[in-house]
Amino acid sequence: MELMRITYTSKLIAKTPQIAEKHITQILRAANRYNPSVGIGGMLVYNKKTYELFQVLEGPVDRVKNLYRTITNDNRHTGCIILKSEVTEDVRKFTSFGMAVCKDQVVTKEEFLELVYSVTFDNDVSKLCANGDNQVTSFTASKVKYDL
Q1: pTM, rounded to two decimals
Q2: Which among 11, 72, 81, 113 is least surrounded, fewest beta carbons within 10 Å?
Q3: Cα–Cα distance between 46 and 52 in angstroms, integer?
Q4: Residue 53: is its pLDDT beyond 60?
Q5: Closest CA to 10 of 97, 98, 109
Q6: Domain ranges across the chain
Q7: 77-88 and 136-139 as β-strands: parallel, antiparallel, unpaired?
Q8: How are strands ordered across the β-sheet holding 99-103?
Q9: Quick one: CATH architecture of 3-139?
Q10: Mean pLDDT of the chain
């Protein structure tokens, strides 16, 4: 089966840190409900200081395209820019995650792409959040652990 991976960046629209946290919580809850039901996995890196988001979505081509289209119309963020898009028959990188989140990670676009595309197993996602207070949280259909 062909898989699509889209990696993109955007910026939350929020006047306060509390509003930004509320947006992230809403986005992650929606991802947890929807993504596993349609075979989509991925990871979201969120910088609390700059409100910048980096995200990778992975799954069936038509479903990832539809989800990305929906995301670009979401008024909680702006400036969606695709950093990398590929259709592949490779092994999935995010099979256990409806959405994983890594908060407070400060990375460049280049670093994020390098890290995401070097991940080979779900357990390696923790490489993206390996230092300090950064934590990775798994969002799966059966168990939700919010770390916000």
Answers
A1: 0.76
A2: 81
A3: 6
A4: yes
A5: 109
A6: 3-139
A7: unpaired
A8: 77-88, 3-12, 52-60, 41-46, 99-103, 136-139
A9: 2-Layer Sandwich (3.30)
A10: 76
